Every structure is written in C-alpha cells, then in structure tokens.
Amino acid sequence: MDLRSELLKSIWYGFTALDLEKSGKVSKSQLKVLSHNLCTVLNIPHDPVALEEHFRDDDDGPVSSQGYMPYLNKYILDKVVEGSFNKESVDELCWTLTAKKNYLPDRSSSSILPERDAFRLWCLFNFLSEDKYPLVMVPDEVVYLLKKICTAMSVEFNCGEVEDFLSQDCVQQSGITVWAFLDMMNSGKIFRGVDKSIISMAVEEVYREVVGDVLKEGYMWKKGQLRRNWKERWFTLRPSNFSYYTSEDRRDCQGNIGLDGNCCVEVLPDRDGKRCMFCLKTLSKTYEMSASDTKQRQEWTTAIQTAIRLQVEGKSSLHKDLKLKRREQREQREKRRQAKEEELLRLRALQEEREHKLAELELLKEAQKQAQALLEQDEQRRREQHEHLQQALEVQLREAEQARVSMQAEIALKEEEAEKQRKRIHELEEMQRRLEEALQQEIKARLDEEAFRYAQAGLLAEEEEKMKALMGLQEEQEEYILKTQREKQELKQEMEAKSQALEEAQRELEEVRANRHKVDQDVVAAQRKLRQASTNVKHWNVQMNRLMRPIGPGEKRPSVGSSFSSFQIPTQRDPGLRLRRRSDSEERDDESKENIDSREEKPHSGPANGDVDIP
User: Which residues contact 320 (CB under 8 A, 6 or more apart)?
Assistant: First the structure.
C-alpha cells in the first residue's frame, strides 16, 4: 500500500462528509475549501484558478467523486513529496470533516472513548481496511487489531463479545465500517472493567506501532561518542532509522541513526558497571547501549534485526508487509474454502449419483424379484405337470396290477380245468368225449396262442413306444438341462427333481418288467401243463387204438364244452399283457411244432382202424 492509497482513504472520508445529501456529489465551493486545506497540510502550493478551469463545464451543478479524482491526482497528489509533510495532519483534517457528520457517540455513556483515541482508532481502521470503496475492514483484521490492543494492555482478549458482533449477517457479507467499529468500542463490552487511561495508552502504543511504523520504544542507556559517558535516552526504532530523545515526550531529539543493509547488531559482555549490553554497528560508527534486563536486550536486538531485514528487502513498513501477508493468507484460505466447497459439491454430486445408482440397483433388484417370482411360477407349473404325469403313471401301474391279478385268476381257472380234464381222461367210458374235448381244447389253445402272440406283439410295440417316449423325455431333459444351465443356476434343483422323477419312472418300468417276467413264467408253467395234457391225449389215443373203438366226431359231452367255454382269452387292449402274450405265443408255437413232429414219428393206422388224425 503506497502513500497515494493511504492519502486517498483519508480524503475519501473528507469528500463523503461534504456530501450532505448522500447523492455522491459535492458543490465546487466545498471542494475549493477541501482542496485548499489539503494543499496546506501537504505543504504544496495551491492554485485556486486550476479548480475553476478544470470544472469549467460543470458550472451548473456539483461535482461527483469520479469527476474530482482527476483534479485531485493531477493538481494535488502528483505534487506530494514523501517526508515533506506530516501524515497525521492530513488524517486530522479528514477526521475533523467526517467526525462532525458520522461520529455521534452517546456523550452520557461512561464508556465512551476520548476524541483522541477515536481518531487513532479511525487511523488504524484506515490502515487495516481493504483497498475497496466504501472502506470496510474484514472480521480477521478486526480481531487482529483488538488482540494487539489487549496485548498492549496485558489483558486477556474477550472473544465472546467480538464473535457475537462479527457473527451478524451484514458484517459477514460486507465487512465492518469504521463507525460500526467505533460504536462497538464505545459500547464498553470489549474492554469491560479496564480503566480509560489504560485503554488510551494501549491505543496510542498500537497507533504508533502500526500507523507510525514504530517497531519498538523505550528507555536505554547509551554511551557517548566523545565523552564516552553513559546517559539514559528514550529510543524510537523505525524500519529506516533509530532515533533517541532526552525524554519520552520526543521533543528534544539527540540523534538519528540511519539503518541499511550494512548495519548489524552484536551482544556485548558486561563492563563499566553496565549489564545487558549490545552494540549497533554502521559503516561509520558503533553505538553501544545497555538495556534494563536480558529480555529487553533480546527484544531490542530482534527489533533492530527486523528493521535491517526490511531495509535489505526494500520494504518501508513492517505492518504493511504483515498486512499483505495476512491478506494473502485470507485469499489462500478463501481459495481453500472454495476448493473445499467445490470438493463438497463434487462429493455431493457423487453422492447423488451413488443414490441414483442405488435407486437403479433397487429397481434391478425389484425386476430380479419379479423374474424370480415368474421363475417360481414356471417351476410350480412344471411341478404340477410332473405330478399329473406321475399320477398318470400311477394309474397305468394300477391298471397293470389289475391285469396281472386277472391273469393270475385266469391261470388258476386253467389249472382247475386241467385238473378236471385229467380226471375225465381216467374214465374209459368217457374217453371219446374227453378226447374230443381235448382236441377242441388244443385247437382253442392254438387260437389262444395266436391271440397271445398278437397281444404280445402289441405289448412289445407299446413297450417300444414307451421306450421312445422315455428316450424323448430323456433328450428333452438333457436339452432342458443345457437350457437351464445357460439361463440360470437356480434351476438345478428342478433338473434334479425331474431326474429323480425319471429314475422313479425307470424303476417303476423295471418293476413292470419284473412283473411281466413273472407272468411269463406263469404262462410257461401253463404251457407246460398244456403239453402234459397233450401227452395224456396221445396216451389215450393209443389206448383207444388198442381197444379198436372208433369214436365218431359227433359224440360230444356238454359238460366238457361248458368247462372249456368258461376260459376267457385276455383281450389285446390290455397294455400290460402284450409282451407276455407274445412270449406265450412263441412258446406255444414251439410246443405245437414239437407235438406235430412227435405225431409224425409215431405209426398210425387209417381211418378204418379208428385212428384220428390231429392236424
């Protein structure tokens, strides 16, 4: 912050104080007075004609701040020479103008600050305020200034009241104005219980340190250059010089030591009855000084080294440098805050995206549940179909069982008829009739055998169809297994259930086959009995040939016919007997062939002798 900026801040308050209507414009007569006073305190010649010539086109009205700025820069500020005037006089002029209009404290309050302290706080505010108009001070700078004053008073900083004041929305958004700052200081809440004189001394100390660029002040003993005696002096250290006075009123200056990069500070041992000694070396002289204690010596040496460092770095004020550093830190904090907000926004966007994805995932889960429900419905439907198929198989098994029972009944009937036939054959008187019945029974047996063959062929065909259907079910099951493996692993249980059902069907088929084999054995036993009956018929035929008693074909006994007529041939519609009939017909065909061969081998007489030819 250069000298022009510092002057403009104070002049801005003076210009706004002249704007009574708050229109942003001031009359030319008031500007003439302001300009003349500024030239006076700045020690530059005043040209009253220049103002008239500059605002010649604006004779009819007042002048705005934008219109006054070119004149101020050209005719006043450009002519200012640093060091040729007292900056405090300029501040007092502008403070006098603006305080009459804006600084209106409650005079009846006991905590009101003195006028001089209010002026110094106003100067401190201008120094620490931002370089933007209207002038405001950010909350961080307010806290910094109040902490400096509390440190000067050696009291603890009351941050509660300050935070309550700074937490207001208007302060947070735009900063605090100087008049609000002075009202806060006059309220007495910040330095409650502290004497006014202590506050005034602390404000003056901070004012001289910050605005007056005084790095350190205080009494020290100094050794003279000519007489080499020790005298107590009041020292004032600034970044550019090290002055010492007779007393702390700073009226009688005894000397001024210029500081530059060639200066240095050294700590000296105690001698000449003085302690805590150090010296300041320049290119031409060496100044020996003695502090009151070791702490003061450390503070003085550190402050002098700081002033030398500022000269080396080309900086004219320590607090201006610190202010710029604090501003840079605030800007960095603001950037970090903005970056953090951007990061929060990004995280919030990621969170929203995550929530959106979670919602999509919930939708997918819901769709999956619906698909699972559909799969369960399909599985339930397939289970019902499987149960229907199992029930149909059970019905077929029951029908086969009923057929087996009926076949056993028929076999029992055949056995009874064969027993009756054996009893009738033993009777010689009824041999002709029994032989005829035996012949008829043989013919009927051949017909039954033929029928059994057809039934057995049908049973085999049905068995082949069932085997084909079973193979088709197996192929369908394999295809279904491949399909369910591609679609989803969860259908594995259904495949296993169907495989179990298929194994159950195969096991039932094996049981049917076993039952069929048992029935085949029963049929073989019946055929064996039939062959025995045929043998008996041949035997009685031989007996009849011996007795030479021809038997006429018309002689029949109704009792034998009725017994044979009670034998019923099973129908071919029964699917459980087709295979059995086929095997029975084959065995009977073989047996009939054996009977024919045996008859051809035996000698027989012609029909005249009473022999009967059996086809």
Answer: 1
Q: Give percent of the chain with pLDDT exceeding 90.
A: 21
pLDDT in tens, 359-392: 999 999 999 999 999 999 999 999 999 999 899 8
> Strands 25-26, 63-64: parallel, antiparallel or unpaired by DSSP?
antiparallel
Q: Give the whole-angstrom CA distance, residue 354 versus residue 459.
A: 69
Nearest to 67 by CA among 56, 49, 55: 55
Contact 176, 137 (CB under 8 A): yes
Instruction: Provide the sign of the torsion angle of the four alpha carbons 243, 248, 249, 254, taken in this order.
Output: negative
- Distance between CA atoms of residues 350 and 234, nearest Å: 66
For residue 95, give both structure tokens: 């403070």
Say which residue the tokens 């440190």 belong to: 151
Burial class (CB within 10 angstroms; exposed 0-12, middle 13-18, buried 19+) of 257: middle
**What's this model's pTM, rounded to 2 decimal places?**
0.55
What 8-state DSSP symbol labels residue 603? -
Euclidean distance between CA atoms 182 and 160, whole angstroms: 18
What sections of 103-210 are H helices per DSSP?
Answer: 115-128, 139-153, 159-166, 169-174, 178-186, 196-210
Q: Do 301 and 308 meet the contact criterion of CB atoms below 8 Å apart?
A: no
* Count of CB atoms situated within 10 Å of the CB of 325: 10
Nearest to 430 by CA among 609, 557, 537, 561: 557
How far apart, in whole angstroms, are the C-alpha atoms of residue 425 and residue 554? 18
As a whole number, mean pLDDT of residues 418-437 equals 76
The count of C-alpha atoms lying within 13 angstroms of the C-alpha of 215, restricted to the half-sphere facing its C-beta, is 25
Report pLDDT for 107: 72
Q: How far apart are CA 108 and CA 154, in angstroms?
A: 28
> What pLDDT does residue 339 have?
92
